[in-house]
Request: fold
Amino acid sequence: MRSRISQRIAAGFFLAVALVAPAAAYGQGVSPSVSPTAPYELDFTLPTESKSGCQVCHGDPALVRVRDGVVMSYYIDDATIEASAHIDQQCVGCHLDFTYKAPHGNGDWVTSAKTACRNCHEDQSRAFGVGVHRATVPNGNGSVETTTAPKPLCGDCHGAHDIPMLTDNPDGQEAMHADGWVVCGSCHEDYWDSYDDYYHGAAYKRGAKDAPACWDCHGWHDILPSSERGSRVHESHLVETCGQEGCHVGVDENYTSYAVFIHGRSTITDDNPLIALVRSVIGAVGRLFGGGAE
Amino acid sequence: MSAILLAQVNVWMDAVFILLFIGVWLFVLFHFSISIPKGRFRKKWIEGKWPEHDHLPVFLPKLMHWIHLLCMLALAFSGLYIRFPFFDGGRTPMRWVHYIAMTIVGLNYLWRLWYAFLAKDRDYKKFAITKRDLQSALGVLAYYGYFSDNKPHVAEYNVMQKMSYLLFAVLMLAQGFTGLSLLTQPILFGLSPREVLIGWWLGPLVGGVAVAGAWMRVMHYAINWLFIIMTVVHFYLAVNEDFLIGMDFFGFKKYPKDKLVTHGHGHGEEHAAPAGAAALEAE
Ligand code: HEM
Ligand code: HEM
Reply:
């Protein structure tokens, strides 16, 4: 235990030397300093307590650490942050549990950063709190408890340092629109696969900008299971959802019942007797030739 | 209810038409292979005995057929992309290809109609199906079915050619109509082409304008395959039945002058026809 701490101190020391040495070498008279206002123990020059400070280390592509045998990069590209919606925020605005120590410790960095959003985005965070992705669910005894089921945090869908500006920013909206696999598909893989009808799913996966992303129909922060009446894709809401501005304006139930096709094309295809016949013929021919080859 | 039907019809159409498309190629291959033992292959491709002609294709129909052909290829390609997006990022560009090609092919169609009926060299009579055409129909079928080696000769186009060319023309109208009724943008004094073309009559019949539009899409897609399948046959027959005139029609190679016959040589005497397209009027 002691030796690990001393290793870390040694590492911190070398880091500090490495950082300060070039400045000293310039002979500008910059003495190794501990900022008088900073409460941390690190002996390196932090010009400010924010971005450029963190970027002194995290702006270096070589900043890696081996964790559980995996090389993890801790490099944050300046250009990424500059292009993001959060260019004006300080690092510690989201990384609330920054310990002002190096190494910074093994706190649950990721979780704290991915949930820090609520401090600014209150409406979204409230909406999230009533959607199916919230972590606290009714336990059947009249109260709620935190579920152990995997649930996404803000950052799991929105990303991290590269979150684009969405408001009044077509590029950002486009990038978000194209992100269906990351945002929804990577967890709901079966629904991603079955989203394959001609003009919605198949087109969406081929980058059609006017084809709906998952959330354009299902909703987002307050998203509910389609079986719940409140869901935007519950039968009772299809007329509004399909008929939203820019889509099938003015349609009625006669038309929206066609929505079964949106996630149902593969089932309908599998159930088609002619297609089943063709597949079995192809299968039989395949076995005829493939079988003999062994 | 109607919606489940719609979904199933769409899947059925994909299966049926793709099989038909493969089937028509197999059929053409089969038909061609029979022409070898029957001696027709040898006669045409080796001995060079192609049908004789008494006049050559004229310029404007050639040009219009070219324009038509290129547009149809673009329409089929872009249209199939709209239904089956088979590469990335193509939706908007392929829509534009479809919209531009449909405009050109529509104008070209009107031009062809003008040429057929109103031009100095009007040629609508080439396509008119007469009583004698109908009487020759069984004979033509027997010839193509290898039951007989005599191809009845009534006019420049045989009855099956006339019928298929007329069918092409009718299908073009249907395709234009069904295609335009897929447009939902309010570009006509606040109404969309869909509302103007089908909304007011088909809409109430099938349960709404949008459902009517979906059925038009079904039709447009079906006719798309009819075009493709008919064009495979048309292409095969153009190449394998009358290669030399086809080459001339496409402007690739002039029909050999020495093969040009005046009337009475080898091909049916009855139709009164001096040289020149306009005059070639079957009745
Ligand atoms: C003659 C005039 C034509 C017009 C006015 C027309 C119009 C249209 C329109 C507006 C669409 C819908 C495009 C969209 O969703 O943005 C469409 C789709 C399509 N067109 Fe055409 N088109 C024409 C001819 C053709 C021809 C000749 C073919 C094929 C040979 C063709 C094949 C298709 C196909 C396969 C689709 C997709 C159908 C589907 O979504 O299932 N079109 N057409
Ligand atoms: C695949 C390539 C094609 C070939 C090799 C081809 C070949 C020919 C030939 C050789 C003729 C006869 C010309 C004559 O002797 O007067 C002809 C006429 C005709 N073809 Fe095609 N064609 C092709 C594509 C198409 C397509 C895609 C369509 C329509 C969808 C079409 C519609 C017609 C029509 C309506 C005629 C009647 C003559 C006219 O319009 O002047 N063809 N074609």
Summary: Chain B has two domains: 2-58+123-282, 59-122.
